[in-house]
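for the writeup, i need someone to sanity check this before i put it in the appendix. the sequnce is what the collaborator sent (i think, or maybe the updated version? ugh). structure was predicted straight from it, no edits. if anything looks off just tell me and ill rerun, i have time this weekend
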Amino acid sequence: AVYAASDTAASSAKQQKAAVVDMGNKICPVSSEKVDGKNFYEYNGKRYSLCCPMCADTFEADPEKYSAIADKEVAGK
């Protein structure tokens, strides 16, 4: 039974990983530049596009702020 439980946990973790939603933002929420399609930051099950690797550090420092900026852009506000 212990093995079955760990198998279930492993497959559950894989499903969660697959459930990350790509936000599809076209503007970097940190720099307001166009995104490059190569740099991303995952936060709260969402994947945000960034313009460069340096913006990931800034996003990580205040993810609430930058995710809200990207969410507004995607919503067209």
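The first strand starts at residue 21 and ends at 22. The mean pLDDT is 86.
thx in advance!!
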